[in-house]
Amino acid sequence: MTDSTLVSTTINGDSIEFACPNDETLLDALRNRVGLTGVKEGCGTGDCGACSVTLDGRLVCSCLVLGVEASGREVGTVEGLTTNGELHPLQEKFIEHAALQCGVCTPGFLVAAKALLDKNPDPSETEIRYALAGNLCRCTGYDKIVRAVQATAKDMRKAKKKKG
Amino acid sequence: MAHDQSYKDRKFEVVGNRFKRPDGVEKVTGKARYGADTFAPGQLVGRILRSPHAHAKIKKINTAKAEKLPGVKAIITSKDLPDLTNGDIGLQNILENCMARGRALYDGHAVAAVAAVDEQTARKALKLIEVEYKVLPHVTDVDEAMKPDAPLLHDWIFTSGVDPKPTKPSNIAGRTEMGNGDVEAGFKDADVIVEKSFKTGQTHQGYIEPHACLASVNPDGSAELWVTTQGHFSFRNTCAALLGLDFAALKTTSSEIGGGFGGKTHVWGEPVALALSRKANRPVKLVMNRDEVFRATGPTSSTSIDVKIGAKKNGTITAASAELRYQGGAFPGPWAMLGCMTGFACYDIKNMKAVGWDVVVNRPKSTAYRAPSAPMAAFAIESTMDMVAKEIGMDSVDFRLKNVAREGTRAPYGPIYGPIGIEPTLEAVRDHPHMKAKLKKNQARGVACGFWFNIGGQTCTDLNIGTDGTVNLTVGTVDVGGARASLAMIAAEELGVPYDRVRVNIGDSASLGHNDTTEGSRGTFSSGMATIFAARDAIDVMKERAAKMWDIPVEDIVWENGVARATGKKHGNLPTLSLKEIAAKSHNTGGPIAGHNEITADGAGNGFASHICDVEVDPETGAARVVRYTVVQDAGKAIHLDYVEGQFQGAAAQGIGWALNEEYIYGEDGRLQNAGFLDYRIPVCSDLPFIDTKILEIPNPNHPYGIRGVGETSIVPPLAAVSNAIANAVGVRMTQVPMSPQRVLAALDDLDNAS
Amino acid sequence: MRYESPTTIKEVVGLLKKERGKAFVLAGGTDLLVGMKLGMIEPDLLVDIKHIPAMRTVKTSKTGFRIGAAVSCAELGEHKAMKKAWPGVVEAANLIGSDQVQGRCTVVGNLCNASPAADSVPALIAAGAKAVIVGADGRRTIAVENIATGPGKTCLKKGEVIEAITLPNQTKTSGDAYLRFTPRTEMDIAVVGVGINLTLEKGLVSKARVVLGAVAPTAITVPEAAEALIGTKVDKKALENLAAACSAACRPIDDKRGSAEYRTRIAGVMAVRAAKIAFKRAGSAA
Question: Among B147, B263, B273, B705, which residue carries the largest CB count within 10 Å?
């Protein structure tokens, strides 16, 4: 009988191995075994989105995924948004628009907002609000978060146009 | 050194702008460390066993089986937290709330705790602890708890504030009364009198970060506590008192805080974590689950409030009275008194009386929630205000303006107001384009006002200038939502250096003198003031250093725009000395340059707000949705515009959630049924519109920059603003919060049946 | 707790059959892991079915659709043919939880969790969906309405697992819709859910299925509600009859999410709204 599993996975592009009990969530494994504490637990039941990560590119709550399920798959966390020391445009805009107050929901919002913009580069306000409905924020009333996502989308579309 | 606290009009260079917050990058990259984000060598996992009963005698706790489980390092019960409070009833209540002492007083009350090598073992151990309960009758409703035959929580509560003092204990902890004039005579003068009773549900602050701490106690009595808190000094003092530690020996560090809104002003699991660590002689990390946060931290009171307002046909209020019943959970609190103090604070009423009843019930111990107690009173009173306006056929904004409090009006709680912003906010509402915007079918608009005292309090701040001319500001208030940016701006303004030269650090309990908890909207007001004075101290030092460098009398030096300038014809040709130049030479001119300030910052200017709310009501389902919202609030002086707006927006959103959906739901068994974010419904992104803001600046005469606290006031008006809008949309006056779809639909049915 | 991730359905059945302790199938895990977190479920064995290729796909054929048990609702929502044929089913599936939950949750999980308030179930029943069950004794196919037998209970026997959901092709003059009522706009559990599937002939409703969720121990089909629509153009009178029939069929409980009285009332309201959408879809497809 094995209660633990050695998991080989890719996290933010790095190959990582960790052993975790089979009933441990990916959230706990990321925080306590891999050291990625940017992934937050707000509820542990999939209701707040603070633990949002991508699993093979798809947005999920890491509290609703087992650590063992990450085996052979690609996990993306907030820690992976920055490339070569440069902030992702969403990170820039969140700071610029004061889209965070306490900041504990911010990693989840950023991962979810990136997943949205990857799919839909030109979302309406309503689309943004519904796409981010799985991420609770108690400080901002969401106003500046939605504006930051709108501003990012606009900038990224412009940048793409320039390039392309 | 005494500093002049009074407001001086001046032109600001830095203050009043929008800068990037200094802690922004850490927070968007996941590097910022919150309560659960730190680790200590050899740390154990702490978990708490909680009562499943609303009220029960704890006959026996058997921990033997759990102790034998491999990996369990400590188990504690109340025996491990002996009473060291010396009869301090406040501390005793905190101690009993942290760990039940013979009785469980609410569903979720801690009865034992375990520290083990990992989460799995700790969870297993909890299941092995055997608790024998004798279930007692319980009461969770405030009105029920006041009845003579209600199940009694404490045998030591004899209602205070009544004459003669009762001979029998009850659940009514105290009665408060305040007012002025002759209410009965005033009602006789009224042309119109409206009387109405209201109830509000219990709400939780709903911060996204659960309580978390890492505690480490050494055998020599030294200890460390890393904790998510609004007040690490008061946490230190309370924990040290409960555990018998010296204040100085318990170094308490406030982590980044993932929201508090008052809920992190009080200790819950921290003394338990320290006791576990003491027993296990290893660091213990204790992180609450979300259901523990709901069941066993400090939500705000549910209430029952009667209001009576009388007015002349011309709109003058002749008398107003209110009776307010607030439950404080299982222990007494000041909550009803705060309702009495705030309810009528927006108005100048000749004859006014407010009576408050503070009641205990089998629910978790209430604590502050953003402008604590004010939203409920405002819901009842601001709803009644609209009803009176309607009765006399007056516009509701004009009616409020007719009775508005001004400078010189006596506040319901005693003092005479200085310059205050309620009239300007109402005028701004009246003139706002939102008020003229077209409404669609089933939509209507409501307005309501709100008041919060704001506080100052004990504050201690250090400002150190590095030899490269950059500045470290160390404050003892916690950054709950951008305060580092505001305080850096204030330091930069005062010193005359660019914003990005200043870095703000939250000092731990060992590095600064006592700072009161960051509550009452005091952070930027108090630490802002202390920062100004610390900077002025540093400027004095720099002037002395410049005097040395130039070898001229210090009296001949002024500080302007970040440089020392020699004045007078004698020194006219001397080039100025910048902060950077002075700092670079500091090792030769007397050593490090620092400023320091300790102060009890009094004179916090009152906060007032007026809100406009548009709702759309679905008449078939009773569902009400806020479709447009505008906040107008007086900030005194807005330091960082974004974060002032952010406070307005966040407060309004919490108020809207309270108005429409949020509520603790208890079953017949006295157990909380919705201890999670799925069924305790805080607003999600798609529930809300953009929240427009208008910042007014009526300077607070008691602050050098004119600052007033801005954090709380705007949670006060939304309950009534939403209710007034619903009344205007579909003609029903909701008397119970939350105004859930089924309550609105039931009210619509009653309206149909009546007509 | 053991964790197994077999690659064939046969292995799944074998593992489940053999297990003496509490065994659970893990697909999306959005209910299972919550139960584990809250200490309500303590499995001895989890069998992850996401490594079985046939479970991961939506297949279209001449006879209709086959949705693998491990297909996430997000994937279902991206399936163009499904969306076109059964918009009501897809919308219902997409109402479950947030985008994050969508990335994991499955309609089979929604069905097997057997919550009376499951969003996808009324829509599936209205659409005539069937569940393909595999066990040690082979395969059997039963109507979706026969899976849940009460709150949290299903007719599945030990060692049985639902492999897929099948849906017929939607006819050109048919349309389906699902609506629910929740206090919040998102992240909520249905106070009432209504799935309706209509077929038109010469502009009149010729066939109808009306299914209610969250108003009884399981989702319920309401033949009287269907009768109210058949032979009509879904006019005002028909809708009034529909609402009355739906409310009459409700046997809800009072709970934290809504009173029995409210659920009963709202069932009629939501049915009317859903019927209008289904009628429009049936007509516009023609």
Answer: B273
